[in-house]
Design a protein that fits this description.
Layout lengths: L1 E8 L13 E9 L3 E7 L4 E6 L4 E5 L6 E6 L4 E7 L4 E6 L4 E6 L5 E6 L4 E7 L4 E6 L4 E6 L4 E7 L4 E7 L4 E6 L2 E6 L4 E6 L4 E7 L4 E6 L4 E6 L5 E6 L4 E7 L4 E6 L4 E6 L4 E7 L4 E7 L4 E6 L2 E6 L6 E6 L4 E2 L4 E8 L9 E6 L5 E3 L3 E3 L5 E10 L10 E7 L5 E4 L5 E5 L8 E6 L5 E10 L7 E2 L2 E5 L6 E6 L6 E11 L10 E8 L15
Parallel strand pairs: 1-29, 31-37, 39-46
Antiparallel strand pairs: 1-2, 3-4, 4-5, 5-6, 7-8, 8-9, 9-10, 11-12, 12-13, 13-14, 15-16, 16-17, 17-18, 19-20, 20-21, 21-22, 23-24, 24-25, 25-26, 27-28, 28-29, 30-32, 32-35, 33-34, 33-36, 36-37, 38-40, 40-44, 41-42, 41-45, 43-44, 45-46
Amino acid sequence: MMLVVALVASMAVVGPRAEAGAARLATFPVADLEGWGVAVDSAANRLYVSHTPTSRLLVLDPSTGATINSLPVGRLPHDVLHDPASARIYVANYYGDSVSVISSTTFATLATIPVGSAPHNLALNPRTQRLYVTMYGSAAIGVVDTGTLSTVGTVGVGGTPYEVAVDESRNVVYVARSGGLTVVNGANQVIRSISLGYSPTGLGYDPVSDGLFVSDWQADSVHALDAATLAPRATIQVQRGPASLVIQPETHRAYVLHRGSGSLSVIDTATMTAVQSLSLGFDPTGVAVDPTNQHVYVGRRDNIDKFTEDDVAPDTSFVSSPGRYTSSASASFAFAGADDLSSGAMFSYQCRFGSAPFSACSSPVAISGLQEGTYTFEVRARDKGGNVDPSPALHTWTVDGGRPASGFLTSRDSVLINAGSVASDAVQGTASDALSGIADVSVTFHPDTPGGQPFTGAVEISCLDEGRQNCSWRSNLPGRPGGYSVHAVARDRAGNLELPGPVTRVIVLGAAPRLLRHPSELPQH
C-alpha cells in the first residue's frame, strides 16, 4: 500500500483564543506503510513508526516523509517510545509478547525483552529507570528495568489495560483499564483503583495542571481528574470514539484520536474545553508530540498526518542597533523574536545586509569596514513551528565620517544693536553637510575686554531640505555692549564637529536712547 504523509497546520496556544482551523500544506507519498505507534526524535529530526504488516520499525524524515531506515522488531509492533537521554527506542511487540530496544544512534538492536501477553502501550520514568508496558492479554502491566534491560515485575490492574502514564515527581503510574483507573506506586503496588466512565482508553498526565485526562470510548468524552486525589474536574464532550491521547504541557494542549470518527480533537488543558476538531480520515491509531519543533504527528493505517501547533508568525525587533547617523565604520545589532508560543532560544534567525540574500544568523551581528554611505540591515525570526516573520525588522543608517562646514553671512566688524527685543540684530550664517545633515550650530562670543566672560548664543536653524544638508542660522547677541570675536562650530547628525570653525568679529551696541518729542512725553511737575 502507499503511504501519504500529509502536513496540516493548526493553531494552538497557551490559554483560550479563537482557533484558526486546519490548513493542509503538502502531501508526501511513501511506499507501503501502515503506522500504528509513532515517536519523535527532535534532535536527530526523525520519526519512528511501527510498521505492523512487516514487523519492522521505519525511520522517516519528518520534513519529506522519506524512509531513512527500516529495522526488524518483534511481531505486530504497536506503541513506540523514544528516550532522548539514553538514545534508545522502545517498541511494544503485540504478537511477540516482548519489547524491542534499539539504539537511536546506531540503529542496532540492544535487546528483546519478554514482558507478557500482548504488550500494547509504553511509558517511561527516567528518574527510576523503569519502563511500564500495558499487557492487553493479561490484565496487567509489565515493569522493565532500563538499566539492566530486564523485566522486574508484573502488576495486575483489575481489568484490560489500554494506556499508561507516569508522574515522575510522585513516582506513580496511572493505568487506564476497562471500567476504571488504577494507580501503581514505584514499589509495583496498586495504591488506588477507581471506577471511571464506561470504557477508559487513552490517558495522559499534565504536570502543569497536575491533571489526568482520560478518554472514554463509549461516552464520547474525556474525563479531567485531579492527579493527586483522582477527584473529577470536568467531563469534556468530544467526537465519536476517542481512543489514544497525548499531552503537550508547554502549550496546554491534549490531543485525542478518534478511531470512531477518524478525527483529532484538541483540548485546552487550562480551560478544560475542546477547542478544535480536525478530520483525519480512516482509522487513526497513534499520536506523538514534538515539543521542540511544536509539531504533532498522527499515525493511521495508511499514512501519517503532521500538523503544527503554531501558525502565528513571530515578530522581530532590535534590542540594540547603531543610531540613524553615525561616524563609526562598524555596526552591531542585537535582536530578538517574540510570538504567542515561542520564546528565547526557540527562535532561529535570518539576516540580510543591503541587497544580499537572507542567510542564517544569530544575535548579535557585527559589521565592520564600512565606508561613508547609507546602509540597511534586516532580520527575521523563525519560530519552531516553521513560521517566519513576514515583515522583517529593518534598520537604515548612514555612516558619515566627514566634517560639516559653516560660514558667516554677517560681515566682519559689523555694528549690531541689541535692543533687548525681537527687533534686535543677530549674527547670521550658513551650515552644510552632504551626508547626515546639520544637527546644530554653537556660536560663542568672546569679549575683547580682558577677563570678560564668553557668551553662548541661542541659535535658530532653518534648513532648505529634509535632509538638513543646507541650512542657515542666526544667533542672538550678548547683552553687554562691546567688541566680540565670534566663533561658530557646526555639528552634523553623525556627531562630527567642524573644527576649528570660522571666526569673525562684531561690535555690539545697546539700544539707542529715545528722544522725547511730544509735550505729553515731558515730565509733569
